[in-house]
Design brief:
- By secondary structure, the protein is α/β, with parallel strands linked by helices.
- α5 packs across α7.
- The two termini are 39 Å apart.
- Helices cover 35% and strands 19% of the residues.
- The strands form 5 sheets. Strands 3-2-1-4-5-6-11 form a 7-stranded parallel sheet, with helices on both faces. The protein has a two-stranded parallel ribbon with strand order 7-10.
């Protein structure tokens, strides 16, 4: 029976991928920094708590794997990428991984970022653009992807990079991390009765995809990897949702759940330190990946926002989720 190992199984995307894989008749190894509750399903699931910056722990975690899903992210995400600790997680572990694997080259599916391209040179982007990352986080993500591609060319692994868009949604898994992205951040503000502020005039667009659809993309890549190996592939809904519209939808849904009036959505001048990528629109053409795998997002933006808001307002141990 195939053994699939998920590195970063307690993370927002990692826990969704783990839940999806648990529904398959496989051996599943869920690796996280702390113990998590195995998701239900027919998979023979083993939970491993490990610090994967420890090379020996990493080697033990991936030993015997037919496929490895790499979804590690340093605490604090892109905001702390300048630190040595963050670079060790975001890049150093990938360097170690390609060194410690042995035997038949395993399939390695890496969760990259669409933002690795830097300031989008056009709309939509499809993955054929030259990469010019402008932030430490995106530089680390691109460097890790390049390590994976070289290891693939050298025959050490069979690597695939799936570059993720703006991912949002709820996370029902016990012990897993909640979404810290823009949709949930605004929903938390609305829950607290605070106005929702947007940098600029609100017309900046983001390609938003629900986390369950992202998990489905990983399972699709695992099911049909051969034509994907060695490349990077962009995931996206192809809509390019204006943030002002998204925030108003969040305010409306939160009002429906709380019985209060919707909070205001206001535009403000962006701060001087705002990265250029934050002020540019992104729409993603994922046709190359869709044509190979048949994957496409199924959860609409309104449905995804409804689910996200409902999860945040559902009491857990007597209080709303935070």
């Amino acid at each position: 029976m195939k053994l699939i190992t998920v590195l970063g199984a307690s993370g927002f995307v990692g826990s969704a991928v783990t839940r999806a894989l648990a529904r398959q008749p496989i051996r599943l190894r869920a690796v996280a920094r702390r113990p998590i509750t195995p998701p239900p399903g027919p998979a023979e699931t083993t939970v491993v708590a490990a610090d994967l910056t420890d090379r020996a722990a990493l080697a033990d975690a991936v030993a015997g794997s037919d496929a490895i899903v790499y979804l590690l992210l340093a605490d604090g995400g892109w905001r702390v990428a300048e630190t040595e600790e963050a670079e060790r997680v975001n890049l150093g572990v990938m360097r170690d991984l390609v060194d410690v694997v042995s035997g038949k080259p395993p399939l390695v599916i890496y969760g990259g970022a669409a933002s690795q391209v830097g300031v989008p040179p056009r709309e939509p982007i499809d993955g054929s653009e030259p990469d010019e990352p402008g932030t430490p986080y995106d530089k680390q993500k691109l460097a890790a992807e390049q390590v994976l591609k070289k290891a693939t060319a050298d025959g050490l692994v069979r690597g695939i990079s799936l570059r993720l868009p703006t991912v949002f949604g709820e996370n029902p898994a016990e012990g897993a991390n909640l979404d810290r992205g823009v949709v949930s951040a605004m929903a938390r503000r609305a829950l607290d009765g605070q106005d929702l502020t947007i940098w600029g005039d609100g017309t900046v667009r983001r390609d938003l995809v629900h986390v369950e659809d992202i998990a489905a993309a990983f399972t699709a890549a695992l099911a049909a990897p051969d034509a994907l190996v060695g490349g990077h592939w962009l995931l996206g809904a192809g809509r390019g949702d204006q943030l002002a519209d998204v925030f108003r939808l969040v305010a409306k849904e939160m009002a429906a759940h709380t019985g209060r009036s919707p909070v205001e959505v206001t535009c403000v001048e962006p701060p001087s330190h705002a990265p250029a990528t934050d002020l540019r629109s992104v729409t993603i053409d994922s046709t190359p990946f869709r044509e190979i795998t048949g994957w496409r997002p199924e959860i609409s933006l309104p449905e995804g926002v409804r689910r996200t808001v409902a999860a945040l307002t559902t009491p857990v141990h007597g209080k709303a989720r935070t």
